[in-house]
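User:
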Amino acid sequence: MEIQTIGVVGAGAMGNGIAQVCAQAGYAVIMHDREDAFVQRGLGTIQKSLGKLAEKGRFSPAERDAIYARVTPSTTLADLAVAQLVIEAVFEKLDVKRDVLGRLDSLCPPETILASNTSSISITKLAAATQRPDRVIGMHFFNPVPIMQLIEIIRALQTSQATFDTIRVLSVRLGKTPVAVQDSPGFVTNRVLMPLLNEAMFAYMEGIASAEDIDTAVRLGLNHPMGPLTLADYVGLDVCLDVLEVLHRELGDPKFRPCPLLRKMVDAGYLGRKSGQGFYTY
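Assistant: Predicted structure:
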């Protein structure tokens, strides 16, 4: 099956980034969200991102405009029925994702591939919510999507080899580097990353050092480009908590127990950059 049109469910930070890279690769894109205000905000982000890339010489003004024109806004999920691939990028909650995939399953032709951008949830569980489990797969992009090169391709127990091969080829066409990952909580990156961020939060909660000094120590001592608390704010503290809870519940290992301070901050609405307050003020 040749993929010509890609649907994206969710116009937030991940969704509009996925829509942008797909449009840059020449695909027609339908970007959907439940409210027009969300879609328009996502379109504005794409327009701003493409403008910056054009200023840097990546595209001519005509190419920039052509890429933007390939993204069609939608607030009706049925619009995505014309796509050969639909990627969901909604909240990191199992019930929300299962609901979206179940509705897409009833709307899209049987040959359409349904992909999830989940960063931690079992693709096998998501595939079981559909009548096409062999055509369900994980495509874990990284934020900011237009810049980050990696895609984790996660194969559910039910995913066919043909589906996997199609998505691997597509990932390369998007300019990304795909890595094959078996369906396991947190996959590779978050299974490694989240304990690091969590431990930095424990160190801060216990008063071992200030947020600035913890970040400086990791940046300079471990040669990381960004400190762990800055990175947690960037990812979103609510997302960090969701992923840690999945890891803790599914793997049963106490090393994944979320830091109590993280829970309190999320309860307070301190979610990092997107709320203006996290371990730092923005």
